[in-house]
Specification:
The longest helix is centred in the C-terminal third of the chain and has 39 residues, at 183-221. This protein has helices spanning 2-39, 48-79, 81-94, 99-114, 122-128, 131-136, 140-166, 170-178, 183-221, 226-236, 241-269. It starts with a helix and ends in a 10-residue tail after the last helix. It is mainly alpha-helical and 279 residues long. It is 82% helix and 0% strand.
Amino acid sequence: NKKAQDAKAQLTAATEAGAAVKAAKNVVKFEKKAEDGAEQEYPRTVTVYFQLKRSLFTVFCGFLMAAFVAIPLGIMCGVNRVVMACLTPVISIFKPVSPVVWLLIFQIVIGAFFLPDPEKHPLFLFFGALPVVSSLGVNPALIFCACTVAMCAVWPALVNTALGVSSIDKDHLNVARVLRLGFWSRLFKIIIPSSLPLVFAGLRISMGVGWMVLIAAEALSSSDGLGKFVWDEYQNGSSHSFANIIYACFVIGIVGFFLDRIMIFLQRLVSFDDGATAV
C-alpha cells in the first residue's frame, strides 16, 4: 500500500509539473502573440478614394501598354501595304472579342507564371519597390485587369494610327523624295508629325474603351477598384447599397469625362485646326 501511495504521489507530482510547464509555455505563446498583434498594421478601411486610385493606376498601365504596341504597329501598317494586308485579318478577328474572354485568358496564362507564391516573383519584387506601386499594392488581379484593358484598347489606337499615316498628303512625301531624305528623316520629320492628330484621336477612343472595360474586369477578377466596389455593394444587399451604386455610377462617369477632356487637350496641342478635335 505504501508503494502504491508513493507511486500515486509521484504520478500526481509529475502531472502537476507537466501542467505547470504547459501553462508556462501557453503564457509565453500568448505574450508573443500579443506583442506581434501590437506591432501588426491592420488593413485600413477601403474607401471610394482608395478604389479610385487603384482604378486610375490600372487603366493608365493598360493604356500605356496599348499605346506602346499600337503606335509602332500602326506606323508600320500605314507605311507598308504588305504589313497592312497581313495585320488586317488579325485586327478584324480579335477586335470584336469580349473583354471577359481576354480576362479569362490572362488569368490562365499569367497565373501560370505568378502562382502559387506571387509575392516572391521577381516582377512583384521589382514593382513593389516603386513608391507609387507599393502604396497601392501589386497583385495578380491588378495585372489581369491591366492586360485586359491593354488588349481591348490597342485596336482603336492601332487603326487610327494606320489611317493617319496612310492619309498623309502625297505632296509632302514627294518633296521628301526630291530632297533625298532618308527613311528615318521622313519618319520623324514628316510622317509622325502629320499623323499625330489621328493618332491622338485613336488614343482618345482607346482611353474611353479602356475605362469602360476596366470596371467590368475589376468586378469579375475581384481586383481592388471601382468595379469591385460596385460588385461588393451589389452583393452586400444593405439598405445603402443602391445609393452607393448610384454614387459610384456618377464617380465613374465624371472620371471618364475628365479623362476624355485630357485626351482632347493633348489632341489639340498636336492638331493644325480646331475642327479635328470636334466632340
